[in-house]
Amino acid sequence: MRTAGVVGGGPAGLIAAEVLAGAGVAVTVYDRMPSPTRKFLLAGHGGLNITHSEGRDRMLPRYGDAAGRLAPMIDAFTADDLRAWCAGLGEETFVGTSGRVFPRSFRATPLVRAWLARLDALGVRVERRQRWDGWAEDGAGLRLVGVGGGVDGERRTVHHDVVLFALGGASWPRLGSDGSWVPEFAARGVAVAPIRAANVGVRVGWTPPFADRFQGVPLKHVALTVRGQDRPAVRGDAMVTRTGLEGGPLYAVGAAVRAALDAGGCVLEVDLRPDTPAERLAERLARRRPKDSRATWLQRSLGLDPVAVGLLREATGNAVPDDPAAVAALVKALPVEVPATMPLDRAISSAGGIRWSEVDERLMLRALPGTFVAGEMLDWEAPTGGYLLQASFSTGVAAARGMLGWLDARERSAPTEAVDDGRTPLGRP
Q1: What is the spatial distance between Cα 251 and Cα 301, in angstroms, rounded to a whole number?
Q2: How many helices (H) and strands (E) does the chain have?
Q3: Which of 131, 148, 254, 160 is nearest to 201 (CA)?
Q4: Which are the contacts of 184, defined by CB distance < 8 A and separation ≥ 6?
């Protein structure tokens, strides 16, 4: 029987194991944690946003520069396919008001339990507490080290006909995704883009009075852009923290923030009233009553809440101008200097990974025939909203199908051994 090793027990690895086992391949999954799907289960604490209902043309641009490479994989295992897969495990899904898709149970545990039972029924072996420690001296075997439990420190080497790596990025080290695989792949000549924080907040040097008063307070219904980056504004609510800003809009502009930081500096522009043009705001501000304080003027004229007024003061050094046109311009593009993103261990996901030039259309490494990669090990990123899990599942399915094709091609090209049955000379009819 053909054998496959899957290194990593997250969504990409397990869906690949399911596809392979369904095609009759003997699959063993190696995971360093005491149980697989740890990060998947953690995502379920917030309701398990498993994919998004928007159409293909709107979904693909969410993946930025990697959209072209991911497109055929997402086309081959779509959001509808992922929802059907959930239903097949007894977990019907629904579309929320934002277009995001969730299991009706709103939890990951029932889905994971049914999934592991299906894998077991297909004969998939899941070996827990097994950390991949690089390749064996023959260049083909996988070195494994036991981690904790009754296997701590045990070392062994395993061989398989084909191997998939699905070790994730580096944003959840306590759950196994720590990026420790990078040096091993680099040593084998595989180019890896630096792994950086994605879907993460930004640092801002608030003054102590502003941080003391407004940490934990949301900036409601704002639009964010990064100065100098030709990308559309992103709307939503941004949360003020003691050291910066967090929230969905920040995550969506993360790639633009990193690009600006790499270029020398990042200024985030906050539109406090995205639905109202500057001219209309200036007209309202021009009707200021003589006795109005600056805060009263801003709140009455524009409906700004205290945190928005505080941000105006923060951005201007507590010197908000009196000119209505100048204030309107600030309200539409309030500059907030961003010296850095939050660190990788604060990130929901990571950017960077194995460069697309290193894999073929089947997700096989060009430098290591028979070795495939999937999930966040590849160089792509996406905002929250179901896009991360969708691409992880889609690349897992694509890699598994590529592995099956590679195994079939290898068997077709293998020479057929002649057998002497003692009745006719070899080579004669």
Answers
A1: 31
A2: 15, 20
A3: 254
A4: 134, 135
Q: What tokens appear for 47 in the block? A: 């309701």
Query: Residue type at 226?
Result: V
Spatial contact of 47 and 145, defined as CB atoms under 8 Å apart: no
DSSP letter for each residue of 134-171: EE-TTSSSEEEEE-SGGGTT-EEEE--SEEEE----SS
Packed helices 324-332 and 306-315: angle between N→C axes, nearest 10 degrees: 100
Helix, strand, coil fractions of the chain, as percent rounded to 5: 40, 25, 40
What crossing angle do the helices spanning 387-413 and 67-76 adopt, rounded to 10°?
A: 80
CA nearest to 167, candidates 379, 409, 377, 340: 377
Task: Give Cα separations from 345 to 44, 199, 335 (angstroms).
Answer: 19, 11, 27
Please answer whether residues 129 and 32 qualify as being in contact, where contact means their C-beta atoms are separated by less than 8 angstroms: yes
Q: How far apart, in Å, are the Cα atoms of 331 and each of 260, 355, 357?
A: 22, 40, 44
51: left (phi over 0), alpha (psi -120 to 50) or beta: beta
Cβ atoms within 10 Å, residue 290: 4
Quick: pLDDT tens for 36-81: 898 888 877 778 999 999 999 999 999 999 999 999 999 999 999 9
161-181 per-position pLDDT tens digit? 999 999 999 988 888 889 999
User: What is the DSSP pairing of strand 218-226 with strand 266-271?
Assistant: antiparallel
Contact 367, 190 (CB under 8 A): yes
AA identity, residue 48 = L
Cα 152 to its chain centre, rounded Å, is: 31
Edge-to-edge order in the sheet of strand 202-203: 334-338, 266-271, 218-226, 234-240, 244-246, 202-203, 340-341
Rounded distance between C-alpha atoms, residue 123 and residue 347, angstroms: 35
| Contact between residue 9 and residue 126 where contact means Cβ atoms under 8 Å apart | yes
Res 175: pLDDT: 84
Structure tokens at 247: 């929230």
**Residue keyed to tokens 């507590």:** 318
